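Data availability excerpt. The first of two example chains:
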Amino acid sequence: QVQLVESGGDLVQAGGSLRLSCAVSGSGFSINAMGWYRQVSGKQRDLVARVSNTGSTYHAESVEGRFTISSDNAKNTVYLQMNSLKPEDTAVYYCHANLRIGTLWYDYWGQGTQVTVSS
């Protein structure tokens, strides 16, 4: 059974840093892409950053230059390094993985991890 396990959310002061991690556990899959989304209560879930299996990355304009997504393919793990955090970065951060199992592609989500940035 495939699962995404996240860690790293915390309470931090503005200007501080956090590193989120997300590991895909299970077997019989290959990773097409992984990413991080965030959601504030009552609002839609927005893409923050994404990395493909080729290593190409995308960062939302709101986090460009402050956040960096990276991956360790050997560990099936994706990271989000968040620097210069702002109160508006406060949200629940969700890991997402697009996986190939057999001949089909599936989307998986982590349970979410809370990031709170105090001013």
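And the second chain:
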Amino acid sequence: VELVESGGALVQPGGSLRLSCAASGFPFSSYHMRWTRQPPGKERELVAVISSTGNIKNYVDSVKGRFTISRDNAKNTMYLQMNSLKPEDTAVYFCNADVLTSGNLRTYWGQGTQVTVSS
């Protein structure tokens, strides 16, 4: 199982970014996927979840109306469109999933991508 995030950058407040998570090594279309972030000096925080088919999406209150999670199962890729970015969105963003491996459910994480919102 491999998850590789990309798209992080330095952006001004009010700006936009799109993060991508390329997945491999498991049947991507069968699993819910998550975006989680870790602000500097703080605990990791679940940002958004998307169902295996993409029909169900949930967000933490602080990003509702600004962020959109999506996926392309044909490309084994998940996305996070982030608009109206705020300094408090500064964090390392990770994609992750609980994947059945050798009969056990295990959580896999990508290496993360840095998003910095600053003027």
